[in-house]
Amino acid sequence: MISFxxxxxxxxxxxxxxxxxxxxxxxxxxxxxxxxxxxFCDDAYLLEKNIExxxxxxxxxxxxxDYTMGNLISGDIxxxxxxxxxxxxxxxxxxxxxxxxxxxxxxxHYCGYTDKTxxxxxxxxxxxxxxxxxxxxxxxx
Length: 141
What we know:
Elements: E1 2-6, H1 15-28, E2 32-41, H2 43-54, E3 62-66, E4 72-80, H3 81-91, H4 95-110, H5 118-135
Parallel strand pairs: 1-2, 2-4
Antiparallel strand pairs: 3-4
Helix pairs in contact: 3-4, 4-5
């Protein structure tokens, strides 16, 4: 089950469309959908989590807590809407496109992809692009 929670004034339009998409992403990776919670928040909220849980005193766009067991994908994905908006401006992309990229990025980590090396980062970007293309294609699995 994919759920959406809000710790800021932001609301995601058409939550079911996003939940269906993430489900298709998981199916395309031969994974099973467990409990995935998206928590949309602001910079201050996410900074507090970053300090509390990761001992990092820096702003970030996403922090994910992975509870995956085998192929059952589960976790909590915290996303700073403020950071995503700033990144969209910096990267000269649409806010919603950047938000979808960050949303799928967290799930791809749960599927085993990492971005700690240059090679891993390139693979992650390619996977993000592949999965973003699935957003508008309701038939792909």
